[in-house]
């Protein structure tokens, strides 16, 4: 199974067309292997991006250098996956009972 | 009487088994129909809800799970199937819909992707078709429909999450639905269920141009969003795909609309983003319940405005 250890989801605020263009460049770049959950579209709608752990540093640097406002909505994707897995196993157990 | 836990996530086999049980429990109302096979040869099943009457009655298509990782959409669909059989002849609005129309429900529109999310990569979104000349697998099945194919909001790169595929309908999962709907010839409504960020959208995704029926669709969607919110206050944003979320060509509802199915909508089900696509199991039933109110509102409008 693919693991997502340390991968994070960033919620990035977009305030103008220039920021949409810069963010579009970032998410379309092959270098960072980003998975866009909510794309840059109009102002006022935040963008959600899954950032693999290996890309965290360069992506953070890019966002800081360009003056983006962002927060981390998921600190560790693998932890969520593990919780979900546990929940599914628990539910399967209940079904058997 | 079912032992199926609707508040949990399940394997493809469990979902298919439950579809079979629903059809066996209510043979006069429901049948399980195979509409094709996926790339990896898994069957694609729809549940047909019909109270009889003429052969090709006006029909509604409910599509879920086209993006495999959006598990709450498949879960909502299977809950909806049980809701329809439970409420028929108890809920006058639903009964009135089924007296006049058939409902076709496809709970897992991307079976290969769904299985892959449970065996290899929980975040998988696309199909599992192979791309000659590329190590990357899969096409985004919601960029693969013949509606401004390969236009805005898609990628020609097979490694992208929004890869549009080599040509429209290249994905057998998409082609199977297209052929079924075209052969039937009397669909009046197409609703696609996705998850993430609480939106209810209508055509177009491939252009900012207003759809000819945009005003009516907007009104229908706003009423549906209000019905949905009445349960627990979940707020949906309503509008055309292109300006509400982002430009997206080759989508299912744009294809439906351009092929004469006027009432075409996409739901993005409840998810604040704090769980990603991993909406906790405790939220499945509440999500399905509120979505049902929105769906029912749309279907009632379609029934009263057949064209």
What does this protein structure show overall?
The complex is a heterodimer of chains A (about 100) and B (about 300). Chain A has three helices and four strands. Chain A has helices spanning about 15-30, 55-65, 75-95; strands at about 10-15, 35-40, 45-50, 70-75. A four-stranded antiparallel sheet of chain A has the order 2-3-1-4, with helices on one face. In chain A, a hairpin with an 8-residue loop joins strand 2 (about 35-40) and strand 3. Chain A is elongated and about 50 Å long. Chain A starts with 7 loop residues before the first strand and ends with a helix. Chain B is globular. Chain B contains nine helices and eight strands. Chain B has helices spanning about 10-25, 70-85, 90-100, 110-120, 170-185, 215-230, 240-245, 250-260, 285-305, and strands at about 30-35, 45-50, 60-65, 100-105, 185-195, 200, 235-240, 265-270. In chain B, helix 6 (about 215-230) links the parallel strand 6 and strand 7. In chain B, helix 1 packs parallel to helix 2 (about 70-85), helix 2 (about 70-85) packs across helix 9 and helix 6 (about 215-230) packs antiparallel against helix 9. The relative contact order of chain B is 0.17. At the A-B interface, strand 2 and helix 3 of A face loops of B.
SSE layout and pairing:
The complex is a heterodimer of chains A (97) and B (307).
Chain A: E1 8-13, H1 17-28, E2 35-38, E3 47-51, H2 56-65, E4 69-74, H3 77-96
Antiparallel strand pairs in A: 1-3, 1-4, 2-3
Chain B: H1 12-25, E1 30-37, E2 43-49, E3 59-64, H2 71-87, H3 92-100, E4 102-106, H4 111-119, H5 172-184, E5 187-195, E6 199-202, H6 214-232, E7 237-240, H7 241-244, H8 252-258, E8 263-269, H9 284-304
Parallel strand pairs in B: 3-4, 3-5, 5-8, 6-7
Antiparallel strand pairs in B: 1-2, 2-4, 6-8
Number of E strands of chain B: 8
Strand order of the largest sheet of chain A: 2-3-1-4
- Pair of chains with the largest interface and how many residues each contributes: A-B, 30 and 28 residues
Question: Would you tell me the structural class of the helices and strands of chain A?
Answer: alpha+beta
Radius of gyration of chain A: 16 Å
- Based on DSSP secondary structure assignment, what is the total number of beta strands of chain A? 4
Query: What is the 3D form of chain A?
Result: elongated
